[in-house]
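User: I'll paste a sequence; please echo it back and then give the predicted structure.

Assistant: Echoing your sequence first, then the prediction.
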Amino acid sequence: MFLTTVFKGLYLSNMHRYIAIFASGTGSNAKKIVEHFKHNQDITVSLIVSNKADAPVLDMARENDIPTLVIDRTYFYQTENILFFFNKFSIDFVVLAGFLWLVPRYLVQAFENRMVNIHPALLPKYGGKGMYGMRVHEAVKKAGETETGITIHFVNDHYDDGDIVFQAKCSVSPSDQPEDIAQKIHRLEHRHFPEVIEKLLQKV
C-alpha cells in the first residue's frame, strides 16, 4: 500500500461532501467526475484509489492535485486499514469507476447506500464476475442485441448485484463492432455518471 500526496485541509463545512474514487485503468470516468466537481463548492473528489501502481488514473489524479492510494490484495481484503484513510479524508461517498475487484463486506457495510458502481450494460444482462470492458461489448455483439446501455447501482458484496439507481440506453446496429459499442457506452457514462453522483450526494 502506498499513499501519495498530502492531506490538504479539505474541511470546508459540515455540509461539504467528499468522494473517493476507485479505478483500475485509464480512469476516463474518474476524470469526468473530477472535472464535473472541480469548481463545486459543496462536493470534492478528495482521494483516488487504485489496485495498480502504474494505472494512468493515478497520473490524472496527480495532475489535479488529488491524493492517491495504491492498494494490494492483502491490504484490501485482510485488513480494514483503508477505513482509516477514508476517515482521514472525511470520505462520505465511494464511487467505483472501472475498479475490477470485488469490494469486501466490511467496506460495503461501512458505506451502505453510499457506494456506487457503473457497469457498461443493462443489468441484469451481461453482469457478474469477469464481465467488464470489452468482454461485455463482445457479448452484446455476439448475442445480436439491438440495444445496450449503462447501469449505475449501489454496491453490495456480489458482482453487479446491488440495487439499480439509474440506467440509460443506446441502440446497437448490425454493423456495430464491439469497439463501436464501447464508444457509445463511454458517451453515456461520461454524460450521466457525474450527474447521478451529484444527485445521490444531495441525499447523503
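Confidence is low (pLDDT under 50) at residues 1-13. The longest helix spans residues 178-201.
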